[in-house]
Specification:
117 residues, Aspartate Aminotransferase, domain 1, TfoX N-terminal domain-containing protein, TfoX_N, 3 helices, 6-stranded antiparallel sheet
Length: 117
């Protein structure tokens, strides 16, 4: 995993007091609220949840690009260039991602040995 450790620490400082956890997954460090992913830091930058209804607004902001995984755009997520993430910009995007993620229902924890459909 080749994500920026300094940026990971900056994000953790901001989110940990809110109860957001971090877990190594998806080829990076994923930040979770009630087991819902709200951001993922990986070698290409910081991916944040913005919600499908706000994609146009998010992509109009400087440094935001669509997230493409295996050739498929991921609606509701944008990728941010790390160069733009000064403290104010980072706070703005993390607040947006937290607000959107808080509107999601909590995921139910899986019981060991069971599969979800």
């Amino acid at each position: 995993m080749a994500y920026d450790e300094v940026l990971a620490d900056r994000i953790t400082e901001r989110l940990a007091p809110r109860g957001v956890t971090a877990k190594k997954m998806f080829a990076g460090l994923t930040f979770l609220w009630q087991d819902n992913a709200m951001a993922n830091l990986y070698d290409e930058g910081l991916m944040v949840r913005v919600g499908p209804d706000r994609m146009t607004d998010a992509l109009a902001r400087p440094g935001a690009k669509p997230v493409i995984m295996r050739g498929t755009p991921q609606n509701g997520w944008v990728l941010l260039d790390e160069e733009i993430l000064d403290d104010d910009v980072l706070d703005y995007w993390l607040e947006w991602a937290f607000d959107v993620t808080c509107d999601l229902p909590p995921k139910k924890p899986r019981t060991k040995g069971t599969k979800t459909k």
